[in-house]
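Here's what a typical entry looks like (Uroplakin-2):
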Amino acid sequence: MAPLLLPLILILLAVLAPGTAADFNISSVPGLLSPALTESLLVALPPCHLTGGNATLMVRRANDSKVVRSSFVVPPCRGRRDLVSVVDSGAGFTVTRLSAYQVTNLVPGTKYYISYIVMKGASTESSREIPMSTLPRRKVDSIGLGMARTGGMVVITVLLSVAMFVLVLGFIITLALGVRK
C-alpha cells in the first residue's frame, strides 16, 4: 500500500500546487444592440477572484499565427460582474455600466480568437480561446437614417409655428394699444 501512496501524494501535490494553470470562461457582450463594432471588440473581464492580478489579453487573427498582447491589472469587482449592469434607474432614465475590455485597432469584417492569461501571486489562470468577429464596413449611403419626418411631426411643427406667430402678433397689438392710452 505504501508504494501506491507516494505516487498519489505526488500527483495531488502537482495538481494542488500554487502556480498551476486553471481555465475560466470569457465571452463577448451578448446583450448589447451591437455586440461587435467595425474596428473593435468588447470582451468580458476576468472573474472577480483575479482582482489585482496582471492580465494579458491575447488576440490572434483567424488563419494567422501572430498574437497581439495587451496587459493590464484586473479591476476590482463591485458586486456581480455582469457585462452590462444597471447602476441607477429612475423615472424615464437608466444608467448602465459596461464592465468589459475593449480591443481596438482591428480589421473590419475579420474573425479573431481571444484569450486571457492572468497571473496573481504565484498562481496563473488562463481562459479558453473564444472566437469573435468584427463587423464589415458599410457605405454611408446604405445606412438607413431612421429619423425620417412623419406626418405627425409635420403637423405639430406647423401648429406650433402658427401658435407662435399668433402669440407674437397679439403681443405687438397689446403694446400698440397700450401706448395709445
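DSSP finds two helices and ten strands in the chain.

More examples are in the samples folder.
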